[in-house]
Write a structure and sequence with these properties.
single chain; alpha/beta; 10 helices; about 300 residues
């Protein structure tokens, strides 16, 4: 799938295409409805299907001190959009120039050449959020493209939203997050060299920096690890600051069951399947090892089920 620079002119082969426009962080069930509508419209018209997103997230631009909150990386979104059937992803760099554009200027300068736009009904754009779906429809009529707004999607009587998913993850509720995302929440990163303390107690781990991802509840999780070669390995992971070791360091440390290969400098994806317990500090390595034995047994049980 091709990645397009949203600040550059639309390549001719994508002109006339239908664009799903939004942040789409998480690409949850509600986002999938918007993108699905755009793809269906594009197919019916025989034109390209495009998905546009913003990077960094506008919140990061306007409130740079906000704690990490991303549910997906840009690379993850690109793969998800491709799997949904999109032909290309447009990335609008959210910077001072973009933030200053009026709603009219955003459409005229950044959406030139498109055939249609599909958004969620709560979508806003332009300087000081001056544009909404009503304004977009008016601009579409002026610039000769069609618009559609997709209503919110509810689950259990509550709208599916990224904030709802974040809340579930902070509470350690993996089941709700998985249901709303339609897949497990997944942290992807390069395996780092560490102190290798896990090897001394029989639990070598693949360590991944949490980067800009939302921090779920600190604790021990049953996980599935997707390797760069496509293999999927069950495991258990500690997500947090490792209170039993000095100095504390925030990491995602995944222990892969029945696995004895080097993963250093490889990119892995760790899926959080179930929260097992909060982090705890142990006075001895023997006590820590005994608890890890129990954690891994419980993780195996849950994952096999």
């Amino acid at each position: 799938m091709e990645r397009l620079d949203g600040s550059a002119a639309m390549p001719p082969k994508y002109c006339g295409g239908i664009v799903a426009l939004g942040n789409f962080d998480g690409f949850h069930g509600g986002h999938q409805a918007v993108v699905g509508r755009a793809i269906a419209m594009a197919k019916s018209k025989g034109v390209p299907a495009l998905v546009a997103t913003f990077d960094p997230h506008p919140v990061r631009y306007f409130k740079p001190d906000t704690p990490p909150f991303r549910l997906t990386s840009l690379e993850q979104r690109q793969r998800l959009f491709a799997a949904a059937g999109a032909d290309a992803m447009i990335v609008f760099p959210f910077n001072t120039a973009l933030a200053a554009l009026s709603a009219d200027a955003f459409v005229a300068q950044r959406l030139a050449g498109i055939g249609g736009v599909v958004t969620g009904e709560d979508f806003t754009f332009g300087n000081r959020k001056s544009g909404n779906v009503g304004v977009l429809a008016e601009l579409g009529a002026r610039y000769s493209f069609v618009t559609q707004a997709v209503g919110a999607i509810a689950e259990d009587g509550e709208v599916i939203s990224s904030s709802r998913i974040r809340r579930a993850l902070v509470e350690g509720d993996c089941a709700t997050a998985t249901r709303l995302l339609t897949r497990p929440y997944t942290i992807e990163g390069v395996v780092q060299h560490g102190a290798k303390l896990g090897r001394t107690i029989g639990y070598p781990t693949a360590n991944v920096d949490l980067g800009s991802y939302l921090r779920p509840r600190y604790g021990i999780y049953a996980v599935r690890i997707r390797l760069a070669d496509g293999r999927v390995i069950d495991g258990a992971a500690n997500l947090g600051i490792r209170p039993s070791f000095d100095p504390p360091k925030e990491l995602l440390e995944a222990y892969l069951f029945d696995f004895d290969e080097s993963l250093y400098d490889q990119t892995i994806a760790v899926e959080l399947i179930a929260f097992l317990r909060p982090e705890a500090k142990f006075d001895t390595l023997e006590a820590l090892t005994a608890q890890m034995d129990k954690d891994c047994a419980e993780a195996r049980r849950l994952l096999s089920a």
